[in-house]
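Hi, here's the filled form for the chain we discussed.

Project: internal
Contact: R.S.
Residues: 591
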Amino acid sequence: MHTVRLPALTLLPLLALCVHGRAALARPAGRPVAPNVILIVTDDQGYGDVGAHGNRMLSTPHLDRLHAESVRLTNFHVDPTCSPSRSALLSGRYSTRTGVWHTIMGRSLMDPGEETLAEVFAAGGYRTGLFGKWHLGDNAPLRPQDQGFERAVWHHGGGVGQGPDHWGNDYFDDTYDVDGEWRSFDGYCTDVWFREALAFIEAQDERPFFAYLSTNAPHGPYLVDESYVRPYLEAGVPPTLAQFYGMIANIDENIGRLRARLEQTGLADDTLIVFLTDNGTAAGHARREGEEGTWEGFNAGMRGHKGSPYEGGHRVPFFAHWPAGGLGGLGGGRDIDALSAHIDVLPTLAQLCGLKRSGARHLDGVSLAVALRGEAPAPAGRTLFVHSQRVEVPRKWRQSAVMTERFRLVDGRELYDVLEDPGQTRDLAQEHPARVTALRARYEAWWASLSQPLGETVRIHLGGVENPASLMSHDWHTEDRGTPWHQNHVRNGYVGNGPWAVDVQRAGEYELLLSRWPLQLERAMDVVQASVSVAGSELTLPIEPQATRARFVLDLPAGPTELLTTLRRGSGEEHGAYFTAARYLGAPSKR
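And the returned structure, exactly as it came back:
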């Protein structure tokens, strides 16, 4: 078991004297003209995974305090999985419009033409920082630094330890990407994200800040110091759920530390904090089969969990806290029950902060700023849509929910009245066929509006600002749902293949290095043949089993193409090169 050494909350008075080796900051002279913004998004934490929502087992005192002091959107929805929710959150547009409808297979890559929250804030004079999870592309032009963040401390892939992430990361004392360079950190991942966010927040800079604090916790694997887990095991919580709760307890502690620091530095009154999660609970809804424990889990009475089209898959917490003061504020301690969603966050924050968009692309979301301020009701009569696809090409009606204030049409055939039946136990489709028909028609119109993005592919750039581009099988395009997206798949030698969708930025000579292992490991591949197919060229080379890589040099024309690699083992089994580095060398060769 790794040991995490954290300052206890009782040490906060001492921390107030010295943080990061510097004296505590005084409030800068003069108030900012717009509020600072901290957007906190946790991963796989559901609506029921907050004490204030009725979970009598999980202790979240700092989240509970934030809940008590915030304006709460109690009917707030996201997509049922990670990347889609994040793309919609950052763009104000339905995730599928941005090119994102999966978490792997090249379908978690967000169209670089989307105008992100970070770009809107940066254009409005804010400094912008991301800390933690991105999961919208690890290569140019899709990285956070390509999409409006001037500071980015993040892990690659969809979670710490996944295939594109730094090899060997395991949540403790890991190596993360800092503005394009790998850097080692001490401590537990969540603590690192909050610590780095605080350093960014406290930097001497007159500009207001936008900090996107996006934790990978409590996403699996469920790893956290045992001190956070032990109280739950002793209370009868099954082991997996105890680990999950322990990760949330650590997040809660960090939120408490963050808020205390904002108060100590005089920033609290000028800072808007928004807390939400990216999908329904992954582990908190029920006890896992075969595990001992008396606690059965808690899902706030909702049906479904992460990935589900039912309420438990996509209804999540949303708290907005901004103390009333000279800059405006929101008040707090009240609920807004109107239907709302992730697509509303960008227009809402833009209006609250007085920011303008370029307007190049139509938003699906609406601003809830006046409702959050208590000046007028939230928009009514809306119909919203979420779906979970997790396939190469989306399928109509798959894992979908059409939502109105009162009704949910699930998968195009089940109808639920969530005001009378919040647990979605009684299907009313046979009793209300006209309503089903009306909601199906709204879905059909929405689906038709997605026809253009469904026919497009977001591509990784070769030979552009990132040279070399380091590719990983996480982003292969394939119908095979077993795509090797995790480091354990690589260790186990998963047999599968698919192409990367790429766009060659400059015609010329390119070096392609194919490997079964991360290139920096210099580990024998134990393969006898390597092949590459790209832009109409197909090349094959014999390989010695002890070789650590296969090297190809070839001329590539500029433009979109697919890059397919193959490694053949001595047994005859073939699979793609899990790792490939593509480097532009220069003008086309004269061979």
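Let me know if anything looks off before we file it.
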